[in-house]
Design brief:
Length: 303
């Protein structure tokens, strides 16, 4: 279901408030502390905000951490930064922050559900759940950070691929054919319009750019391929029986190297194989949306 436009507009308006506070702090030559969550989404969010601040020539320090604890609170109290930014967490620490550092300027860019909000004019709390937008599926922490970054400067659309990485790291590709939806779809559209991304329908095996085809199949657990998963020899034999060469010019071929007819043969054969194993429910996991970062180098994990 598409996210209601009214909710989107209100969410974006709140990211603009966060951007305003960031810009005001930078213009006053203030020092900024950034704390972000220790997972793929949190690291992506940190990258987006860090890059945004770097472009502004801001004074800042960035730290990745698992949670907000006494050590972080004490650090804020001792260092007295002019602004503290939390990305991919913070919403569930609002009461603690309001109790311990009520006079600090704080921006929270989060997407997790939270229990209680607080009233504090020093705080800008950006979270999709405030507007009834599901943060588990429609936008990640890095997505929230991206909208704030774009509000700081529209040229920060170049950071959209990082937000897509964060959303995929948070496994938000829950829509039909494993697509990103909700607010994430706006980020995808931004990246497509900026010629930073292409979206393809393809086999959903890890290592599309880098892993030899037989190893990609052998390492698959979604779908699980009985007799192939965990068995590189059996995987290689399966491919050879389909007349799919494993090497080309002495280089291992990856999934991205498959020709259209080879890809079609492999997909059909895998579907038939899963049916023969009584795993018809796994067939839908074969094909999905692949997000390719086209400015990154071919045959590398970054792409």
């Amino acid at each position: 279901m598409a996210t209601d436009q009214y909710k989107v507009e209100n969410f974006i308006a709140l990211t603009q408030q966060a951007a305003k506070l960031i810009l005001e702090t930078v213009q006053k030559d203030g020092f900024i502390h950034v704390f972000s969550h220790l997972d793929a989404d949190g690291i992506s969010a940190a990258g987006i905000i860090g890059k945004t601040l770097f472009k502004l020539d801001a004074k800042f320090r960035l730290r990745i951490t698992q949670w907000v604890d006494k050590k972080i609170i004490d650090e804020i109290i001792a260092d007295k930064p002019q602004l503290v930014i939390f990305t991919d967490f913070g919403s569930n620490y609002l009461e603690l922050l309001n109790e311990k550092v009520p006079n600090s300027k704080v921006v929270i860019l989060d997407h997790h559900q939270f229990k209680n909000d607080v009233k504090n004019d020093n705080y800008v709390h950006v979270n999709p759940h405030i507007f009834g937008i599901p943060g588990a599926t429609d936008i990640s922490g890095s997505g929230v950070a991206y909208f704030a970054a774009k509000a700081v400067n529209p040229e920060n659309v170049d950071l959209s691929p990082i937000a897509i990485v964060g959303a995929l790291g948070d496994m938000q590709d829950k829509n039909e054919l494993r697509t990103l939806g909700g607010l994430n779809s706006i980020i995808v559209d931004d990246a497509l319009a900026a010629n930073l991304l292409k979206v393809e329908k393809d086999l959903m095996f890890f290592g599309r750019e880098t892993r030899p085809i037989h190893r990609a199949l052998a390492s698959s657990n979604r779908p699980f391929l009985p007799g192939i998963t965990g068995e590189e020899g059996a995987s290689a034999k399966f491919l050879k029986n389909l007349d799919i060469n494993l090497k080309e010019d002495q280089r291992w071929r990856s999934l991205r190297d498959l020709k259209p007819d080879e890809r079609k043969r492999l997909c059909s054969a895998l579907a038939d194989y899963l049916f023969s194993q009584g795993l018809h429910f796994e067939v839908e996991n074969l094909i999905g949306s692949v997000y390719v970062l086209i400015k990154e180098e071919d045959w590398t994990p970054l792409r």
